[in-house]
Amino acid sequence: MATLTSAASGTPEAASGGTGAGKAGRGAAARRTDSERLFNRVTLGVLIALALLWLVPLAWAFATSVRPPGELATNPTSWVADNPTLANYREVLSAGRIPYWYVNSFITAALTTLLSVFTASLAAFALSRLRFRYRRPVFLAILAGVMIPPQLLMIPHFLTLQATGMLNTYWAVILPQVPNVVAVFVFKQFFDGIPVELTDAARADGASWLRIYWQIVMPLSRPAISAVTIFVFVWTWNNFLWPLLAVTDPQMMTLPVGLTSVQDAFGLPQAQLMASAVLGALPLLTVFLFFQRRIVEGIAGTGLK
Amino acid sequence: MSTAPMSTARTTTARTGTAAGQAARTTGSRWTASGMLLPFGAFYVVFLLGPLVYTAVAGFFNGSLVKGGLGDWVGLKNYAEAFGAPEFWSSLGNTLWFTVLTTVPLIVLALALALMTDRFSRGKWFFRLAFFAPFMLPSSVISLLFMWIYADEIGLAQATVKLLGGQAPPSWLGDPNWAMISIAAATVWWTVGFNFVIYLAALQEIPREVHEAAAMDGAGPWQRLRLVVVPMLGRATTLVAVLQLVASLKVFDQIYMMTNGGPEDSTRPSLLYVYQTGFTDSRTGYASTVSLLLFVIILLISLVWFALIRRTEKEA
């Protein structure tokens, strides 16, 4: 931030200095445009080439997934299917468990997100609006939680859920993923920006803090809620290590964990494996296409602002 | 910045109010605050803080999944074993090797892509789609894609090398010298979009006038980049580097699926070592010791992240 702030405060002088120099150096600017245009063209070429390269793995998976098994055997590395078919998808969807995994992933990710958003926003509201002793230490203690990597807690998590008999249930997948420190941080940042006059006025009218949270602050916090919802949902949907341990019953697996068993247990032919991969990619790719701007802003905002 | 004067103003108003009213307000607040913090606090204690303490304690016992419970006190025996185990050191070495292989390109490439994209006002959505979309995918999809691409004989990667005139391309995932590099390349493809997006946002914060002023002063595109733009991205770079280091040190998913640590343990990272000792060998005590050692390493790096967040929080 230090660099950004100093740069921002330095802007007015830099800009005014620039206009002065501009009047004097118009000839130099004209000479520069040619090289600048060439530079831009080269950049654009490199960028497009890289972007296309980046699309290769997904395109390749799709190209493989629509080829009939016989074709794949004779010429494995071909981009074109002579007789494109959706048979691999039909096969995987009817014989495999992918539909179950979709449902399991959706339920666990949605419930985790709901609980995360609710608990984090309520805590953040208390930290932002209420005055109580140890407020600062409590907040710092919560923030310090970003330094605890949940992956390293797999053993105690496993023992806890085993002891309570919850392994192989949705709750086993959900509960350890609920406490989300970054969500508290994002909510508190947002709540701090809501004018105190608004909540103080409601307070003077005799509204309880809980009511202020639910009826005033939360409705004003749609941007924060949607940012947190999207990133917690995506993170939970994609989480791998914990659901791998929590669930061993194939019927109860989440999509990412289930997809590994496709490789191990069923020994499917490549075209069907790629059809599974494409089906595994589809839900979040769709989410991304719909919420591209939100997601990108969410990521940029979480870390930087 | 803005919260500090506001909160002072609020305390002054509170002080000028009647003593009784103020007392009612603070006691009311205290109970409300506890109640509002309770749901999050309960999850935090049961699933973050508690397990961390448990891990620290269990590292001094010989607990196992078979017998259950903490097991018997063994003092520093687990630590002595970890420091003497070649597997511990090799997995740590593999983790660091993966970290080097991914962190450097993930920062440099993301920055380069963002700088190039930032030059164009149209078509940004296409580049964002191409570079960021893979980041949305689950690790198992990435693994399936790249196991097919890296497959011996029939895979796209070997076929491309042959097409370009290479004689005998290596077995990408089967050769101990290449397996980690191949996994790192797949990881760069998968996650570069995240850093790209952060850099792109940071670049958009740089006011237009700064570019123009530098251009007017006679700086060419390359000079402007090196002397004006890159130095202004210091904060974004710190953030990206810290997040990247922490993520790389915790690498597990794609390695578990693509090679499961092989060939010859050449790709087994620390977290897979924890998983294997804890759940394959059922030695939860020893696995806790290794977890704690790994935690200490990650903690040192996360402290920088924590400091960043705190500073942001104070400035807001």
Automatic annotation (TrEMBL), chain A:
Disordered as annotated region, ranges: 1-27
Domain ABC transmembrane type-1 residues, every copy: 102-291
Ranges annotated as spanning the membrane: 42-63, 100-126, 138-158, 170-191, 212-235, 271-291
One Pfam short name: BPD_transp_1
Keywords noted in UniProt: Cell membrane, Membrane, Transmembrane, Transmembrane helix, Transport
Membrane topology: Multi-pass membrane protein
Compartments (UniProt record): Cell membrane
SUPFAM superfamilies: MetI-like
Entry keyword annotation includes Mitochondrion: no
Family, per entry: Belongs to the binding-protein-dependent transport system permease family.
PANTHER family: ABC TRANSPORTER PERMEASE PROTEIN MG189-RELATED, ABC TRANSPORTER PERMEASE PROTEIN MG189-RELATED-RELATED
Protein name (record): Sugar ABC transporter permease
Organism, scientific name: Streptomyces daqingensis
TrEMBL record, chain B:
Domain ABC transmembrane type-1: 92-305
Ranges of Low complexity composition bias in the record: 8-25
Keyword Transit peptide: no
UniProt region (Disordered), positions on chain: 1-25
A Pfam family annotated for this UniProt entry: BPD_transp_1
Family per similarity comment: Belongs to the binding-protein-dependent transport system permease family.
Name of this chain's protein: Sugar ABC transporter permease
